[in-house]
Amino acid sequence: PQGSEKAKTFVHAFLKRSMPKMKDEAIQDMLTRKAVVLEHYPPKKTKQKRKKTKGFTAKQRRELRLFEIEPEQQRYAIFLPLHELWKQYIRDLCHGLKPDAQPHMIQGKLLKADLHGAIVTVTKSKCPSYVGITGIILQEYKHVFKIITKEDKLKVVPKLNNVFSLELDGFISYIYGSKFLLRASERSAKKFKLKGTIDL
Known about the structure:
The structure is a single chain. 30% of the residues lie in helices and 19% in strands. The protein contains six helices and six strands. It has a six-stranded antiparallel beta sheet. The chain is elongated and about 105 Å long.
């Protein structure tokens, strides 16, 4: 073991090397307080930026024709199983469409429901040629429905100025397309106000 004088000398020399910018008086002051903080700066960690996976732009999707249905696939019979799945989905969503179910509650859930697979009919329209079109909704966009009819024809029906009806287990619901100008994903998060609407 070293003597007290040697120990003081060693500590003083060690602190002088560790903290060369400090004066002797400051080092002595730190020693009298018995609190020594050595200057040590850990190397800064550089944060690695996460690369966001870029998807296709709308223009690229159109050029690649990702969402277009091939003509040989445009057959009503192919999509009947999709309609059966949709009916089961709505029954589960509404906890069963019972006769004593409150219509406004079912209507509220149908407003937010996914309509891909639903059979709809255009009941009213400002364009008479759209009235009577019936088929399964294959694709829903912000402004249009793509519907496959029983005649295996793919119809693009605008939502604006059209009224659609859908029937399930005896419950008939009407969709006012003018109030439905949203994508399916946006509609599920939207709060609809139950208020009257102007008829066509």
